[in-house]
Amino acid sequence: RVAIVTTGDELVPLEHFSDVLAGRRIVSSNSYGLAAGVRSAGGEPVDFGIVPDDAAALSEVLERASACDLVITSAGVSVGEADHVKNVVAELGGSLNFWRVRMRPGSPLAFGTLRGKPWLGLPGNPVSSLVTFELFGRPAIRKLLGHRAVHAPRIPVVVDDAVTLSAPLTHFLRVRLTTDGSSPPRAHLAGPQASNILSSFARADALLVVPAGRTDVQ
Q1: Terminal CA-CA length for the chain
Q2: Which of 49, 9, 57 is nearest to 31 (CA)?
Q3: In this predicted model, what pLDDT tens digit does every residue of 127-152 receive, in sequence order?
Q4: If DSSP codes are grouped into helix, strand and coil, which group holds residue 176?
Q5: Which residues of 5-14 are buried (b: 16+ CB within 10 A; e: fewer)?
Q6: By CB count within 10 A, which of 30, 136, 182, 207 is most buried?
Q7: What does the radius of gyration of the chain's CA atoms come to, in whole angstroms?
């Protein structure tokens, strides 16, 4: 059982889409994407809804969420005034094993324990949330289920789109794959790579791993 706790004053469920059309709110896409990811990994998602950017409200929800086998939070783990998750976990007696990973998208990632259960704090941007779930959340669920092979397979590819990267981080780009059956698959960028653009993630077959320090890929 995997608790999903989504934070943010700006978020609404699909039932309140009129607020989105009016420009007042945005859809809590992470609530739906993470639940789907948990199910496909073999877990049972338990949705604790959208929690406002309020430390007291978050504390009450995380207390209940810790009854699950794994707690996943979305947003609230960066350094803004509304980012309360790390502090609330600490106030509840939890631990922070690490925070921030040298990767893009998804660097403000947190991991620790809450009431003795593993807790994974994912970023709030939709693509960052889903990419870090694939790299950290899915393997954690598979490990808890007793699987030995917990990580997705890696394969060599030929890149068809030139890529220029600015930050010396490990990048995970969303790509489509094609193959003629006789050579390594060819990887094509699935669309714009910004961390708020879900359409590229939806079209992707795989994540292209560009190692840190490799700023140009021909």
Answers
A1: 43
A2: 49
A3: 999 999 999 999 999 999 999 999 99
A4: strand
A5: bbbbeebbbe
A6: 30
A7: 18
